[in-house]
């Protein structure tokens, strides 16, 4: 005879333990009666779940969390947008604190967020928190329900969903309570293209771009492209921006999922389909039998800023067919394309270890498909091109009519107009957000004594100093407060 986990734990013990995560209704539901629990929870949590992620896993996880916690502290992202939730809850907390409510103050100071979904879903929550400028921004733990799951893997939460039963949820909550906070850099991206007088480069539809990229119509007088006739998109990311072969494979996967969503209801099947598409697109084995695709040097000039205000050309080998600007040590499902070179190589090239909070982004290239396979080796890595606090891509005339780009798992097909340098993509350091990390965390902080030591670039400031106040305000809104909202018809199952 077997006993259920709830029976073994005992109802009173279980309720006592789960009370550590409990938030009462008077904080969650406006105008509720102020009924406070007997003690302040040590780890109050808000849970956001993409119920359409991971096939049936998202829906099952939603049901389990609602059965374990106060259902009002668990939100289905398919029904409720996180910006509205956090805005309302923090407004309530602020009002209660003004009236001397110490319980509300304790909740605000210790609040943690759990987000379950793919990297796109996790990035959505990080954008919300960044945009809202909350008085005490809560750190975020990520449950891996997507295809790549680079964000959860980077901070020790694994690649695969830990389970949707009550015991698995309880174990995850325990990890959240014991997790440590870690700051990570966020990155601003701006994309500019001249509106064509004729030809096929039409403005990109809002649903074809990653959800973190948004059109801005105001043109700053201080902007070098500050003239009519340009389309401007601004956004942000936390893990990577990539361009070339890998983004093309990702685009094929997302396109296939939109056409046949019924085939993508299982996490393992999704990952297998991704690998299969990689083979047919030429990312894994195709280059053995066909010519390499257009290389990056043919279509774009790349510049980097290693010191404040000083752009310099970055030489891209003509063999590079894919380029990745990487913030975290996890790409395409857990690979680290930067690798761990010998310290002498670091010093000879003026490089530092890839910390996630140093204001530097690592730029890595891949020559072809076979080069991508080196990531499968224990010490495999791509071609290390540079570290910088800003990167700029200026696309050249006529080399190609399009390329593929990807931000944190979300790809798109980027048209390249015929005019010279009419498309510009610029990435710059923006700020930081807080993540929750387990002891299995792969990311390293420059402030962690256990991280490897290296010489640092002290002149490594964000590139915002020369921006006007209006520019900074636009740059601030790459999250959800005003500009990160999805249209009502958007299906969040398309998020990775």
UniProtKB/TrEMBL annotation:
Residues 443-480 are annotated as: Disordered. Its EC number is 2.7.1.107. GO terms for molecular function: ATP binding; ATP-dependent diacylglycerol kinase activity. Residues 461-472 have a biased composition (Acidic residues). GO terms for cellular component: membrane. It is an enzyme of class 2 (transferase). GO terms for biological process: defense response; glycerolipid metabolic process; intracellular signal transduction; phospholipase C-activating G protein-coupled receptor signaling pathway. Residues 40-193 form the DAGKc domain. The keyword Ribonucleoprotein does not apply. Residues 448-460 have a biased composition (Polar residues). Keywords: ATP-binding, Kinase, Nucleotide-binding, Plant defense, Stress response, Transferase. Monomer. This is Diacylglycerol kinase. It comes from Gossypium hirsutum.
């Amino acid at each position: 005879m077997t006993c259920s986990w709830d029976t073994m734990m005992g109802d009173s013990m279980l309720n006592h333990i789960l009370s550590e995560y409990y938030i009462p209704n008077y904080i969650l539901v406006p105008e509720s009666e102020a009924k406070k629990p007997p003690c302040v929870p040590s780890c109050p949590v808000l849970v956001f779940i993409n119920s359409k992620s991971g096939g049936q896993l998202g829906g099952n996880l939603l049901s389990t969390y609602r059965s374990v916690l106060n259902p009002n502290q668990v939100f289905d992202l398919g029904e409720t947008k996180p910006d509205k939730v956090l805005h309302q809850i923090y407004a309530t907390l602020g009002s209660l604190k003004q009236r001397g409510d110490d319980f509300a103050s304790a909740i605000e100071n210790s609040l943690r967020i759990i987000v379950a979904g793919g990297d796109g879903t996790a990035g959505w929550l990080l954008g919300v928190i960044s945009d809202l400028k909350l008085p005490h921004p809560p750190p975020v733990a990520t449950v891996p329900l997507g295809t790549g799951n680079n964000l959860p893997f980077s901070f020790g939460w694994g690649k695969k969903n830990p389970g949707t039963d009550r015991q698995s949820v309880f174990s995850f909550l325990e990890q959240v309570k014991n997790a440590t906070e870690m700051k990570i850099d966020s990155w601003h991206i701006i994309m500019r293209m001249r509106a064509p007088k004729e030809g096929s480069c039409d403005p990109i539809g809002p649903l074809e771009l990653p959800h973190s990229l948004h059109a801005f119509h105001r043109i700053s007088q201080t902007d070098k492209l500050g003239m009519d006739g340009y389309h401007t998109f601004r956004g942000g990311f936390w893990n990577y921006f990539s361009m070339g072969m890998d983004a093309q494979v990702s685009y094929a996967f997302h396109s296939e999922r939109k056409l046949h969503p019924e085939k993508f209801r299982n996490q393992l099947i999704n990952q297998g389909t991704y690998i299969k598409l990689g083979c047919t697109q030429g990312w894994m084995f195709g280059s053995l039998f066909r010519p390499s695709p257009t290389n990056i040097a043919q279509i774009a000039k790349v510049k980097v800023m290693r010191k404040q205000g000083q752009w310099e050309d970055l030489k891209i080998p003509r063999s590079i067919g894919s380029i990745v600007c990487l913030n975290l040590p996890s790409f395409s499902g857990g690979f680290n394309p930067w690798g761990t070179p010998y310290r002498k190589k670091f010093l000879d090239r003026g490089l530092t270890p890839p910390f996630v909070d140093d204001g530097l982004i690592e730029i890595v290239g891949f020559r072809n498909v076979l080069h991508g396979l080196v990531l499968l080796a224990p010490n495999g890595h791509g071609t290390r091109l540079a570290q910088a606090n800003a990167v700029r891509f200026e696309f050249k005339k006529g080399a190609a009519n399009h390329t593929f780009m990807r931000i944190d798992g979300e790809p798109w097909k980027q048209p390249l107009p015929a005019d010279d340098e009419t498309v510009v993509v610029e990435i710059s350091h923006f700020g930081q957000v807080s993540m929750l990390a387990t002891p299995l965390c792969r990311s390293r902080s420059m402030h962690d004594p256990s991280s490897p030591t290296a010489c640092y670039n002290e002149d490594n400031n964000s590139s915002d100093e020369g921006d006007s106040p209006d520019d900074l305000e636009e740059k601030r809104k790459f999250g959800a407060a005003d500009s990160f909202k999805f249209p009502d018809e958007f299906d969040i199952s398309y998020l990775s």
